[in-house]
Amino acid sequence: MTTEDAPRKGISRRGLFGAAGAAVATGVAGYAVHSALSGEESQAADNTGPVEFHGPHQAGIVTAAQDRLHFAAFDVTTTKRDELIALLKEWTAAAALLTAGRDIGQYGAVNGPGEAPPEDTGEAVGLPPARLTLTIGFGPSLFDKRFGLASKRPAALVDLPHFIGDDIEPGRSGGDIAVQACSDDPQVAVHAIRNLARIGFGRVAVRYSQLGFGRTSSTSRAQTTPRNLFGFKDGTNNLKLEDAEKLEQQVWVQPEDGAEWMAGGSYLVSRRIRMNIEIWDRTSLGEQETIIGRGKGTGAPLGKAEEFDAIDFVAKGSDGEAKIPMDSHVRLAHPQFNNGAELLRRGYNFVDGSDGLGRLDAGLFFLAYQRDPRKQFIPIQTQLARTDTLNEYIHHVGSGIFACPGGVTPGSYWGEKLFA
Ligand SMILES: C=CC1=C(C)c2cc3[nH]c(cc4nc(cc5[nH]c(cc1n2)c(C)c5CCC(=O)O)C(CCC(=O)O)=C4C)c(C)c3C=C
Ligand SMILES: [Fe+2]
């Protein structure tokens, strides 16, 4: 692309330098060499392209989980419904460009007039789309009196209850609107949120945000299972994008579920879960495996050999005790003990420095999509909060719930059906 092409929406970021230059500038070439080292990384080497923004469902839910997260919750600061709608239209147009790997605005980062601030902040120039997805959700507080939306609040968008052991910080919780940016390049995800926040200036303000540096789930059978900060494979028994029938039952809101505008959408629960890394690290391997209910090396259920072997909750060891302990995490979270309820987990590891007492401020930014939190997250978490032995090593400090509408078709905008 040349500067002559500039007065057209969405400057190609790579085109500014040419494809070869972009590969070098982004380190993609180095990434590919590095990727020869292991199967897991070679999977990532292909992850530079775009994910389609438009479709029946929002991208970023069943999309094979990317490696990086920038999650932001916004408070709406305008009280004018028209201004909020205008913002959602602007955000949608920008999101379509960003996810295609393009600069936002007409002139992008570097082709505008020298006298004005650039339309795009520029830190993603030369970077590929890196499978960026942007997923929007609306929190319960958006449905107060301000925008005339009270009657549109879905019954399933409940305020989450207090769970035993919760230590929730209001400043890390709630939000009128959430945007989940996932990408295989951290700078691409950060660029996206930064530019959406910039577009929103005067209409929304970032309430809190969270970076995640490593996925803690796989959402496709083509992906290997990653590890969380306790060193365990996480996401083995997750819902996967290949399970189309189960996704209809457990993830996608159906037309008969009420709140018509939510059909094809899903409910997101976010929890910032602090992990007591230092205490965990002083716990024996056997105890760690007993707490989770799976082997640390293989990820196999206790008593089994392979990661994807079925869990046998009945099997007893020579001591007469259940091989999968009654208070182990996988037993208490399993659909068999939760009325068949499942979650599509999409969380990320985080480390936000240390807490001043020499402990890492680290943990899991838990993200889970579901058809109805009243039947899924809430009962599962109620059970975990009561008896999960993992609770000695974790505590929940942030919380959010968001109604994520169905997908965007070309010409429509995020939340159009909500405001219709
Ligand atoms: C309310 C839902 C859940 C919370 C909160 C949660 C926190 C949490 N989990 C781990 C580690 C693992 N979880 C695993 C399985 C698993 N976890 C949940 C739900 C919540 N976890 C479910 C529904 C499942 C699947 C259970 C099953 O059907 O077998 C596992 C095992 C591997 C896997 O299947 O993913 C690990 C490991 C941590 C560290 C954590 C909080 C910090
Ligand atoms: Fe879990």
UniProtKB/TrEMBL annotation:
Classification via Pfam families: Dyp_perox_C, Dyp_perox_N
The Dyp-type peroxidase N-terminal domain, residue ranges: 58-213
Keyword set, alphabetical order: Heme, Iron, Lyase, Metal-binding, Oxidoreductase, Peroxidase, Signal
Protein name per UniProt: Deferrochelatase
Reactions catalysed: heme b + 2 H(+) = protoporphyrin IX + Fe(2+)
Database matches in InterPro entries: Dimeric_a/b-barrel (IPR011008), Dyp_perox_C (IPR048328), Dyp_perox_N (IPR048327), Dyp_peroxidase (IPR006314), EfeB/EfeN (IPR006313), TAT_signal (IPR006311)
Tree of life domain: Bacteria
EC number of this enzyme: 1.11.1.-
